[in-house]
Design goal:
Strand content: 15-25%
CATH class: Alpha Beta
Largest sheet: 8 strands, parallel, barrel
CATH architecture: Alpha-Beta Barrel
Number of helices: 9
Helix content: 40-55%
Shape: globular
Oligomer: single chain
CATH superfamily: Aldolase class I
Structural class: alpha/beta
C-alpha cells in the first residue's frame, strides 16, 4: 500500500529537507543531468530514505535504481520501450507506470505494475502535457478499471485539492510544485502529512 502523500522532488537535498516533516514516500525525478550526478543523487537519496524509513521511487533510471538497491522505480510510457522488466523483477524492485488514456492503461497493465499513475488531474505548469486535465470523475473510473492495484493521482494537485483526489478513489496523490514553490516548503509538507493521514 502506498502512502497517500507522494512527494516528487528533483534532488537528494530536497529529500533531506522534507523527510523530517513526515514524508514517507518520495520520488526522485531528475532530468538532463550527467550519469555520474544521477547515480550519486540516487545513492544519497536511498541512504536518506533508508535512515528515515521512507520509500524511495526513482524516476526513469531503472538500472541505477537496481544498482543502488532502491524500493521502487517509476516508468513513463516511453520508458516501457527500453526497460528490462525482467531485470527489475529479478532485483525484487517494485515499479509504477504513468497513464493518460485507455491505450496507455492497457499497455501499462500488460507489464503487471505495482501501481498505476494517472493524470494530469488538474492543469499543471510542471511540464507541457499532450493530454487535457482528466478531472475527479476519471479517477473513479480509472480505479474501477484497475481494481486492487494502487492508483496515484498526479498533475496540478494542491493542498486544497488533495482530499477530493483521494475521496474520488486515488490511493495516493502526487505533489511537486505545491510544495517546492511554496514560501515555506517544510511547513507545506507538514500540512500535506496532516491532510492525508486520515486516508492512510
Amino acid at each position: 500500500m502506498l502512502d497517500p502523500f507522494y512527494l516528487i522532488v528533483d534532488s537528494a537535498a530536497w529529500i533531506a529537507r522534507l523527510l523530517p516533516c513526515g514524508v514517507r514516500l518520495v520520488q526522485l525525478r531528475i532530468k538532463d543531468k550527467p550519469d555520474g550526478t544521477i547515480r550519486a543523487e540516487i545513492i544519497k537519496a536511498k541512504a536518506l530514505c533508508s535512515r528515515d524509513g521512507a520509500k524511495l521511487v526513482v524516476n526513469d533510471y531503472w538500472q541505477q535504481a537496481i544498482d543502488a538497491g532502491c524500493d521502487f522505480i517509476h516508468l513513463g510510457q516511453g520508458d516501457l520501450d527500453a526497460v528490462d522488466l525482467a531485470a527489475i523483477l529479478r532485483a525484487g524492485i517494485k515499479f509504477g507506470v504513468s497513464t493518460h488514456d485507455e491505450a496507455e492503461l492497457a499497455r501499462a497493465l500488460d507489464a503487471s505494475p505495482d501501481y498505476i499513475a494517472f493524470g494530469p488531474i488538474y492543469p499543471t505548469a510542471l511540464k507541457a502535457m499532450a493530454f487535457a486535465p482528466q478531472g475527479l470523475p476519471r479517477i473513479t473510473e480509472w480505479k474501477k478499471k484497475i481494481g486492487k492495484i494502487p492508483l496515484v493521482g498526479v498533475g496540478g494537485i494542491t493542498l486544497a485539492r488533495v482530499a477530493g483526489v483521494l475521496q474520488a478513489g486515488a490511493d495516493s496523490a502526487a505533489v511537486v510544485t505545491d510544495i517546492s514553490l511554496n514560501a515555506d516548503p517544510e511547513q507545506r509538507a507538514r500540512d500535506w502529512v496532516k491532510a492525508t493521514r486520515g486516508f492512510a
